């Protein structure tokens, strides 16, 4: 077997080989730089996404805080009179008691009765302007959220759990219960 020898490379061929190797080395270093830049870009995009998510959460928290503060202010406006209104309720109760105890048959008390009724109506109209509503549940179904049962009476005239009489009327302030109505409730006869 004879070995074939390659002829010796010419200087031009050597230069081309060297240039090709240099190009390969140059391409390899460019690819490394591109690869590093791509990694940095991916890392930066990830950080940007995290920052965007954080910004959205902070914005949502701020919106929620603003909404809660607005609700708190609204509640403060609505219920600022709660203590004052509660303190006025005995006045209405006393006017109602006075009307219940006066002999309506006696002509001498006709002017007094009319005066007390007008005073009570004026008083209720005034507090109603500020959101205080009187609850008079006589004849209505018993509602434990608005009524306080003081007694139960068997009766065939009304369905069970119906308010038969009102001992003391209840009141609400802007939909919030100030005082439950004290009532008697019907039950089925034995």
TrEMBL record:
Q: Which NCBIfam families match?
A: PRK14139.1, PRK14140.1, PRK14150.1, PRK14151.1
Its gene name is: grpE
Coiled coil: which residue ranges? Answer: 27-54
Tell me the lineage of the source organism. Answer: Bacteria, Pseudomonadati, Pseudomonadota, Gammaproteobacteria, Alteromonadales
Recorded source organism is Alishewanella jeotgali KCTC 22429
Keyword Coiled coil annotated: yes
Q: Which HAMAP family match?
A: GrpE
Q: Mind listing the GO molecular function terms for this protein? A: adenyl-nucleotide exchange factor activity; protein homodimerization activity; protein-folding chaperone binding; unfolded protein binding
- Extract the PROSITE patterns matched here: GRPE
Subunit structure and binding partners: Homodimer.
* Annotated protein name in UniProt: Protein GrpE
Cite a single GO BP annotation.
protein folding
């Amino acid at each position: 077997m004879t070995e074939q020898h390659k002829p010796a490379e010419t200087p031009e061929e050597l230069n081309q080989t060297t240039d090709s190797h240099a190009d390969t080395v140059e391409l390899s270093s460019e690819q490394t730089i591109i690869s590093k830049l791509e990694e940095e870009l991916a890392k930066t995009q990830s950080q940007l996404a995290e920052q965007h998510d954080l910004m959205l959460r902070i914005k949502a928290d701020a919106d929620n805080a603003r909404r809660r503060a607005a609700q708190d202010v609204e509640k403060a406006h609505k219920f600022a009179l709660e203590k004052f209104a509660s303190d006025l309720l005995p006045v209405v109760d006393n006017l109602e008691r006075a009307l219940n105890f006066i002999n309506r048959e006696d002509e001498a008390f006709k002017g007094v009765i009319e005066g007390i009724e007008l005073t009570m109506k004026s008083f209720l109209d005034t507090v109603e302007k500020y959101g205080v509503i009187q609850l008079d549940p006589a004849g209505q179904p018993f509602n434990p959220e608005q009524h306080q049962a003081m007694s139960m009476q068997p009766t065939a005239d009304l369905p069970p759990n119906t308010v038969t009489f009102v001992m003391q009327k209840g009141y609400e302030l802007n939909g919030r219960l100030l005082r439950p109505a004290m009532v008697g409730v019907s039950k089925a006869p034995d």
